[in-house]
């Protein structure tokens, strides 16, 4: 473990937060009620993972908090393959956090009038939101009319916070403004009417965004696929086809392997909200043999919900994990999302490789026998 | 905190595991690779939550591990309302863990022959699976033919384990058997071809099951709704209608509010796999005003993935949380799923109440101001 | 039949086209290849249906072409109930026809550059589309990047044509423009890459539009529900809840009863493309008991694909059906969509009434016995 | 046209039904109410289409009724390519028509008791259904409990009828039996509670069936792809990848191109219910370059709803179309479904070829100019 720490160059304080958490419970009291203690989730490092993003650039050792054996090893294997191939590109494509208040009227006619009025007064709505926050801003205003109900689809940027709290308060201000000023008064309204995708997987996310949308890609030479993943680009593409159609028949949203493993372990380590795994574990993975016979792989995640301020990001051990990445605090949320995308890419490579080479089962078998040898390799 | 501990009557050792985790890192080494320490997630108690299930019965204080302020308070509020109403019924409806290996053939004709052969030899497949496990058993065998590809849909019971590991090994045995004995040999095959819903939300889950399917219900008298949730059954039903249609328009799977919050905090506390939040946070919530003017509420979750042995359930602080529930170890997994259902019910009541009474935003506003007073109440 | 004709006041020529089609096959030769004759689909009238729309206003007798017994009678029953209640409001909310060409690049980086270039040159793209059509216009330009692939999401208005042909040609012009002028050249591209929802039900449609989005509503007094539908608003709301949750569990898109029946019969009668039933039969139906105890019902269809010029709309018998509605030719497509919405509303009322009163089965039983008496009433 | 007729060897009466429908309106009166005449839909022949199925075998000229120019030509082109390649295999995989009655109880406990009672009495339910029909039979009984609601999932075989009517009557008998005999009496119930997928696309269909599930495949040599479709297997596979991911991002159910075009034209010609296009136009298309460089293509449609008796199948012009196929009357429904699958395959080949070669747009452009020359070729 000492060797790993030396790789990281982080402060003694961070190190202590991760290694000896015994003294730190009082730091958590603003984040919990009815506290009786804490659970401890071990953190392993996956990497190095070379990322060439717009906001994150360099070789990252990614902290993953999990109690599932072999998970860190599997991600680490994928990360190393990416790094040996020269790294992956991971790009933040779009940002936006949504709230969708709902308003009930007497009739469609009133609903229509209200909608038109909102559109015409979007500057005022923007201003109302602006009174509540310096970091957030209303960036888009949409509308869904369903009979005499109107859903406003409000999209905000939220700075370095994941932003659910910020957009709720801003939306409340918008609701109060429209109720006070609209020429037609709603019979009742709710600050959130469940069209926002909060804490759930939705098809909606692909054509919009929830949080941060990231796409990442890498091309692994065939020789590297053989050496690191013990299979061929051809078989991995075949797996992709069969598994994509498997996912489609299951009625999943998007097609991917196990983004949730990456996201849960990363979110927990880095003080993100792990309930957001429900909405974030959606996207598209694609494997393709290139004209040169190498393996092109891309992942696209439309709903990464991360921040580097607020929530659990300031807690001692969680902040230490962000520091390991060099992504703690102001100005770092976009880079954090790009690392997320790169990590998901590493995981898709590793698990698909393991399913193609037969190592997926062998890893499970070794786990079942408690064979520790396996753990240095890790296959999903 | 002392008062809370006295409520719980658990062993000194468990108490220490939660309260002073400093000595315990070596216990985690079989569950992690490349370890550099641990993150600490504070645990709060929600309850008492009275559950009248087939496997779980009594008043539970539910440990929730989260860094999201107000979450525990909100669930606790819902739990207390349920308990005051006499408790909720929560019933395990169905169990089954799936693996879906995929086989590629030269033609549909071969695929068809293979499928028929599998059906005719299901006893042999059952036996092959049985060689790998004493706790698991193949309970259902389905098939999806897509051109020259065949997906076997294997469903197992897995005893008290969540079972992903167990079913992988059993499926491997089945794959080896069919490859060795089938009159048509697949060109290639994979032990899992992504029709199983592993780590992802799928529409499939409603008509099948993934893990454990639970439904829970409670009727809250109108007076209790007013006193505890500060709103009316009528408005809560109205919210349900608008939010259900909101969810439908977003392309979500099922309709519910925020199961993910309950599941993530509960899974982390109790040593479950938090990546399974991706597949578990799916279901149906229903609010209805009864003929007597009271509030009937039900939740149905078809994909709860929990176990009481294996995975992270034996780790010190995690096991302590299971002990708080009285649900550690053998024979307890079904009860754990019923508590999950009851907890999700508590959360849907609390958040919907908060959205109807306006407290949802006020809670967020207080959080933003760091107002601690709010935290004793908690609204989602 | 004579009496029905007198209601309609249409030209002798239209009447002949519907009643004696023997002479008209040559009119069809531009609409078919390898012709061997024609099938005859009988047309019945449902109505009167009172519509109070922005583009369609008045009492309509709606021509429905079907070979399914009881269908016309059922829609007619619903239409009459609406009319007795004073008519329904049906409002066109949004219009837009999509094409989604796809472009493949070497890398995400190139894909990103291309996307930015497209955004910066949207006026030129608008102009390129404009060279191909006087009636259509590019109204929105979106983008979905997935790895090194870019999908342009082009939305057009298309005048009175349903517009699939028009938008294909305009999209081709845009593709040619971008390939010629973009600083990065795609490796290959396709004029349509299947994100448009053409000929298929998609979740996408709710947050966008495909063709025309319409919402229609009516409130039926309780006495009228009893008299016409032989049930109560309370039971119809209960049915709605159970059936909405049924649909959700089936993994359908939206929740509704049988829009497809209305749309297929209406599209065939009026020279629309019946394959578009696949994309149009999606939406949300809502039933609600009002504070006064009456029945509020709304339908919202985001993907009505209709036109009054082009396609089959100029063929003799089809044009006669449009003339019966007073909606043939230029300037009428928006009204046609509003009638569609009203018709779907009539159908949801009638079938739900029949399911609540028990008449749904009795209608089927009578059909099975060939009992003609039933047909004057019609229940779904 | 005379030449085409000579190909077909059908009776003079059938020929007259298609060619001179003037005398036949009285035949339709049991299939329509409030009749004012008929619309005429021209019928073209696509083919020859060589099908090697279990129930349909031989070269078929497929009648398609449509007013969309180029549609028949496009399907004919695909059919001819299949035939030149030696024909396609099309296999009926599974049959079953569903009804899903819903029952409301006081509590989950009652719901559970009811469910268990139904399971224990499935023979009696089978018998109750059997009293209503000689052709249909209850083949599967499933259950979905949601709070205090129970949905029975009843699956029937229905002989040569599409069967919606038959299963409604049988389900009514089952409902009456359970209400009379169950130890717990439902508060209310409905013969259909919208979990059946009737008239709507559902994700449910892949893991079950609705009507008839068919899969069809063909391998086209690369030279034939070039000669007939003017493109290469490689580019068609690339198109498939991009379009599959396009469809996935749109939130469609399954991935396919335009099954709806085939199904609507075929259903209308052959007296099927065109509203069922809504549920049938769902499935999976797959294109793959084989190891030999040829093009493997498969389609799988889980929800083909067809019959050869009942509905519109006995009407003069519709019956003539069934006779052209040699699939009129008793014992032919399964073969009809296999032809449907083969036809969908032809269409996917033709449209994808056209999108790859650029002919898709050229076909639209020629249509726009009214250029008849195009029509002999046809590209989607």
Describe the structure.
The structure is a homotetramer of 380-residue chains. In chain A, a hairpin with a 5-residue loop joins strand 10 and strand 11. Chain A is 42% helix and 25% strand. Chain A is an alpha+beta fold. Chains in contact: A-B, A-C, A-D, B-C, B-D, C-D. At the C-D interface, helix 1, helix 2, strand 1, helix 3 and helix 6 of C face helix 1, helix 2, strand 1, helix 3 and helix 6 of D.
Give a short summary of the structure.
The structure is a homotetramer. Chain A is α+β, with helices and mostly antiparallel strands.
> What is the residue-averaged pLDDT of chain A?
93
What separation lies between the terminal Cα atoms of chain A? 22 Å
The 3D shape of chain A can be described as globular
Biggest chain pair interface: C-D, 131 and 130 residues
Total beta strands of chain A? 11
User: Residue share in helices of chain A?
Assistant: 40-55%
Oligomeric nature of the chains: homotetramer
Q: How would you characterize the largest beta sheet of chain A?
A: 11 strands, mixed
Radius of gyration of chain A: 23 Å
Please work out how many helical segments of chain A DSSP would assign.
Answer: 14
Helix and strand sequence of chain A = HHEEHEEHHEEHEHEHHEHHEEHHH
Please indicate the percent range of residues of chain A in DSSP E strands (runs of 2 or more). Answer: 15-25%
Q: Structural class of the secondary structure composition of chain A? A: alpha+beta
Low-confidence stretches of chain A: 371-380
